[in-house]
Amino acid sequence: MFTALRRFKDKVLGWFSNDIGIDLGTANTLVYVKGRGIVISEPSIVAMNTKTGQVVAVGQVAKDMLGRTPPHIQAVQPVVDGVISDFEVTSELLSYLINKAQAGHTKLLGPRVVVGVPSGITSVEVRAVRDAAKAAGAREVHIIEEPLAAAIGIELPIWEPTGSMILDIGGGTTDIGIVSLGGLVNSRNVRIAGDKLNADIVAHMRNEFKILVGEKTAEEIKIAIASVAPGRERIEAIVRGRDLVSGLPREIVISDQDIRNAIGHSIEELVDSLKEVLETTPPEIISDVMQSGVHLAGGGALIRGLPEHLTRSIGIPVVVANDPLTAVVRGTSVILDNLDLYREALLKSDEELVPTE
Ligand code: ADP
Ligand code: MG
Question: How far apart are CA 9 and CA 7, in angstroms?
Fold first, then answer.
């Protein structure tokens, strides 16, 4: 009876407010609005004026400024290494997104917001996100750990008494999570993700080719030709940077093999983290995962040959989820549509989380 009433209340409130789902990623933030789909997908970057403390730009506009700003303008990422780095910046980003998502669609009541956060964030950070969303006008804020949201987004049977495993390779961090009976039974957040691979490429170009390239260039090379196993054909890319010896601009041609050499070590570290999670997971659940496989999400899932390589390394089938970059935000949308059903999966109170390393 009580549940029926609550469900009715949820429905009625839905008429008078916008329901918004947010994937607060380290690299990209995606926003879903109920009834309208994914309306925003922008880099999680805020450009601040350090002299005045004012926000200069948010999202794509701020990213375009990266590496090109005068000294007093700084591009800040609200989520660094899976940690909410700065409350002010997070507030600014959330309020920009919540307002932009509702522009032209204002309703009587403030929106109900579901926010996906990296697994293992501390209670202080959860409170910061909650307060930031409230400050941005949210009427209700619900918070969910990203591996769980991703599992919901890719329609894994999270309520079943069977283990499902997610590997979400983002920009700053990779979330490894095993879900069963509506909760995370084991999870880990590691710092080997897209940004680390970019840094590996920058270092490799410097050490092997004596050429200095920026992070943005490194990311473009990665997306264009990164792979973890040789394909049938050699792929090449042109790299422009500064010659470290002459100090002058120089152009070189590199191959997919060069990038494999650059990122190989990090990929192996990722494999080790996966193995560590598997080693600390109860045997019954491992047996489920061996059958259902590991589901890859996040931008890193798109690295060529990665699922095959991981499958060989851990002996469990690894598959790329459909549309891996939107898994988390799709999860938040499912939660919004069935808030009552998913209440159990949400972080109920800030106290529930214990600080983890
Ligand atoms: P987050 O959830 O942390 O915001 P995303 O899931 O949005 O991260 O993934 C962003 C990362 O994925 C970036 O490091 C980006 O370089 C990387 N990425 C995106 N597309 C590709 C691709 N095709 N190949 C390899 N890496 C990619
Ligand atoms: Mg993510």
Answer: 5
Residue 353's pLDDT is: 46
Q: Give the closest residue to 146 by CA, choosing from 332, 299, 314.
A: 332
Residue 258 confidence class, pLDDT cut points 50, 70, 90: very high
Q: Whose CA is nearest to atom 6 of ligand 1?
A: 298
Atom nearest to 28 CA in ligand 1:
4
Q: HSE-up of 147 (CA within 13 Å, CB side)?
A: 31
How does DSSP assign 272-311, residue by residue? HHHHHHHHTS-HHHHHHHHHH-EEEESGGGGSBTHHHHHH
Residues, beta carbon < 5 Å, ion ligand 2: 25, 170
Confidence label for 14 from pLDDT (cuts 50, 70 and 90):
low
Cβ < 6 Å from ligand 1: which residues?
Answer: 25-28, 170-172, 194-195, 219, 222-223, 226, 298-300, 302-303, 325
In ligand 1, the atom with minimum distance to the C-alpha of 299 is 12
pTM across the whole model: 0.91
